[in-house]
Amino acid sequence: MIVVENLVKTFGGFRAVDGASLRIEQGSITGLIGPNGAGKTTLFNVIAGVLQPTSGRVTMLGEDITGLPPHELFHKGLLRTFQIAHEFSSMTVRENLMMVPAGQSGETLWNAWFGRKRIADEERALRAKADEVIEFLTIEHLKDERAGNLSGGQKKLLELGRTMMVDAKIVFLDEVGAGVNRTLLNTIGDAIIRLNKERNYTFVVIEHDMDFIGRLCDPVICMAEGRVLAEGTLAEIKANEQVIEAYLGTGLKNKDKVAAS
């Protein structure tokens, strides 16, 4: 679905992404792991149009999307979430969800004056869609809560819900488990699995929690120093000597420590 070829992103003389190549298969939940500074988030940002690549190519379903801005990729069904959730803090959970779809009739002054029935009809449909998403995520008790009052994990659920308000094809999740308690992380994991199996969402997940990666992801891609180091099942990745060196720098003698992590 997504093919990345020889992608490079430099900042001055520093190569944050250094000739990375990888393939994301449609319908998969792919894990992206690696030590801090490996280039994972920069890779996400280049694929999602937040950053322009220095060189290389990205295609989606055979179409060259290299360097397209986020709003164009949004309309093609490529979405990403961020390690720090971005919510409209003064709006309720339901209102946050209703804000997502683009091109709403109420956004133009003409329709605000002369298209009130159309706006009302759209709002009813959006409200129904938002309530469906809220029920799917089992957060009915939060639907009228201001988003700014949510916990970190609840905000991550809300971000996942925002991807459900449009026809997402592939979603890039950046450290969805950061600052999230285990119970909520399991809820988020359940939602990702259901979206993958029931609605055919494709996911790419950056995460440091290996239990979470092991539960959701196959394959797993490991990056180090801006390059793709290895790809396979989590068990294969954990047994890979290059991966162990990248994480620990001490080779096979610490393999047991990685396997237990």
Automatic annotation (TrEMBL):
Enzyme class: hydrolase
MF annotations from Gene Ontology: ATP binding; ATP hydrolysis activity
InterPro entries: AAA+_ATPase, ABC_AA/LPS_Transport, ABC_transporter-like_ATP-bd, ABC_transporter-like_CS, BCA_ABC_TP_C, P-loop_NTPase
Keyword list, A-Z: ATP-binding, Hydrolase, Nucleotide-binding, Transport
Domain ABC transporter: 2-250
Pfam name, any one: ABC_tran
EC number(s) per entry: 3.6.3.-
GO cellular component: a single term: plasma membrane
Domain of life: Bacteria
Name assigned to this protein: Lipopolysaccharide export system ATP-binding protein LptB
